[in-house]
């Protein structure tokens, strides 16, 4: 049951609806309350789409959600380097999570590897993407100088929050994958 063809139309519609609801809530709730730092407004819905409908579908969803939300007053307009990172992140989640396993051990291992890899490898890719799109604002630093400074700062100041964010996001994803697989088998 790893392809779209293996999923019923009802399951596909529920997956898309659930992702849209989460995206909508993440757009509206900050107007009334603040969310804990470990809840990502972008990762969970894109991860749901990527892991159940494939990496390309997830990348498209991430791009559309970001563009729409950032241009209807929920953000500061589309920021290209952020958009590129969100597309890359959703695509990579789909590559890793699209193939399901019924093995709790394999899924737990995939969860642990994902949290570590996305925290210490994928998230720092955002520094490289930022550099590419904002080289003129970096004050003459070479790529390696900028990247090493940004990565050092990330490890010292933000890595704990990023680990929490990915732990929570991938945990939710794991639960949703089990629910989708359960309904898909019925």
Automatic annotation (TrEMBL):
<keyword id="KW-0812">Transmembrane</keyword>
<feature type="transmembrane region" description="Helical">
    <location>
        <begin position="164"/>
        <end position="183"/>
    </location>
</feature>
<feature type="transmembrane region" description="Helical">
    <location>
        <begin position="44"/>
        <end position="67"/>
    </location>
</feature>
<feature type="transmembrane region" description="Helical">
    <location>
        <begin position="111"/>
        <end position="133"/>
    </location>
</feature>
<feature type="transmembrane region" description="Helical">
    <location>
        <begin position="79"/>
        <end position="99"/>
    </location>
</feature>
<feature type="transmembrane region" description="Helical">
    <location>
        <begin position="12"/>
        <end position="32"/>
    </location>
</feature>
<keyword id="KW-1133">Transmembrane helix</keyword>
<keyword id="KW-0472">Membrane</keyword>
<protein>
    <recommendedName>
        <fullName>ECF transporter S component</fullName>
    </recommendedName>
</protein>
């Amino acid at each position: 049951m790893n392809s779209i063809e293996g999923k019923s139309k009802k399951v596909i519609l529920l997956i898309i609806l659930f992702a849209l609801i989460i995206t909508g809530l993440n757009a509206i709730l900050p107007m009334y309350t603040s969310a804990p730092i470990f809840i990502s407004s972008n990762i969970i819905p894109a991860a749901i789409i990527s892991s159940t409908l494939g990496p390309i579908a997830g990348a498209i969803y991430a791009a559309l959600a970001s563009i729409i939300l950032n241009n209807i007053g929920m953000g500061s307009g589309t920021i290209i380097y952020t958009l590129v990172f969100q597309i890359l992140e959703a695509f990579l989640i789909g590559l890793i999570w699209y193939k399901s396993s019924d093995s709790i051990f394999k899924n737990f291992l995939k969860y642990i590897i994902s949290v570590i890899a996305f925290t210490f490898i994928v998230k720092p890719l955002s520094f490289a993407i930022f550099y590419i799109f904002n080289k003129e604002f970096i004050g003459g630093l070479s790529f390696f100088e900028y990247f090493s400074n940004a990565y050092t700062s990330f490890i010292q100041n933000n890595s704990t929050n990023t680990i929490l964010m990915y732990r929570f996001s991938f945990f939710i994803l794991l639960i949703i994958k089990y629910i989708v697989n359960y309904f898909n088998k019925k």
